[in-house]
Amino acid sequence: MKKILLSLCVAVLACAAVSAQETATEKPRWKGVETNKFWHNWELSVGGGIAHLDMNTRGGEPGKVGANTGWNLNGAATKWFHPIVGARVQLEVGKFKNVPYEGAAKFNTPYVFLHADAMLNLSNWIGGYREDRIYYAIPYLSFGYSATGFNRKDLSSNKEFAAGVGLLNKFRVTEYLDIQLDLRTWILPEDGVPAKIQGGGRFAPALVGSVGVAYRFNKRDWNVAIQQTEVDGYLDAIDGLKKDLKHANDNINTVNDKCAELEAENAKLKKTVAPAAAALNVETVVFFEKNVYELSAFGEAVLSKYVASVKNTDHKVTIVGHADNTTGSKEYNEKISQKRAEAVKAFIVANGIDESRIEVKWEGDSALPFADGDAEVNRCVVIK
């Protein structure tokens, strides 16, 4: 008995060691789901039902239903290593009943079956892992240790290895609770039952059915692994983004180089335009005849050239009208210098200079632009 228990403990510890090694490295994948840690996906279950030892009698005790049917109770711990593969250790206790023939003594004896089960979740294997599935069909293989009769003197052996198969039907009620219908058969050595009911073979088959509940604790679901095709797709997308980023950086560098070129060209243009800008500040003069304030053809030509030089700038324009001091009274000369200034303004406004840029003044004969000149040159308008 001690050797058997020791063997089961070694098997459980070996499974734990394998699981620990898997979690210490990159988790392997099977059917798109990662394996888990050792303490994840455990179940504890209890159940009870009927037990039948099928020997060489079939009818049972006349007039009584279930004369050959006993009972069983069981408790188990289950570890799922994957949604498809798991292992269970179960302890089952119960009582077998059997009536060998009419008038003979009944075979009524307790039994114990301690076994480990290799379990295959057929529903997840065929249909794929789904946490919302309600029903799971789980066939399994059992191997363990059975004892019947215990201290009966008429048994040549009552402590032997036993093996069996079963189908565990699980019905999910909540995320942590299942209802289970466990149907199984296992065979034990026939010399573990009284000789009067033996069938002449080496083994006696036991049929067991039980209903119970299972509690699922710690991590109950599974991590779906990313498929390699998805990983490759992500990597390709990242490579594409890297290429786009490099292209964008190249474009930024090109734009920066172009900006540097334009700045250098702008500096060069400033040096070139500076003299021309200074030239714009040179006064332009329009001359008039005595007692005349209308523009002559020559005056219009001068103004047209001036307008062309300042039209696309934002320079302020100052127009100052003058008259000579050799003819006319001061009042007359002031009035004619005003009319001459307004005539120049009207022309340059008509030819595209914004009126808001223009300031108009007139000084009559009080301030002569050409102090050393004769009367004819002082009959003018000076544009600054």
Q: Biggest sheet, open or closed, and with what strands and sense?
A: 8 strands, antiparallel, barrel
- Beta strand %: 25-35%
Q: Which shape, going by the Cα principal axes?
A: rod-shaped
Query: How many structural domains does the protein architecture include?
Result: 3
Treating each run of at least 4 consecutive H or I residues as one helix, how many helices? 6
List the helices and strands in order.
HEEEEEEHEEEEHEHEHEHE
How much helical structure, as a percent, in the residues? 25-40%
Q: How far apart lie the N and C ends? A: 123 Å
> CATH topology of the largest domain, what is it called?
Porin
Report low-confidence residues grouped into runs of 5 or more: 1-30, 275-280
What is the arithmetic mean of pLDDT? Answer: 80
Q: Which structural category do the helix and sheet elements fall into?
A: alpha+beta
Text of the CATH class of the largest domain: Mainly Beta
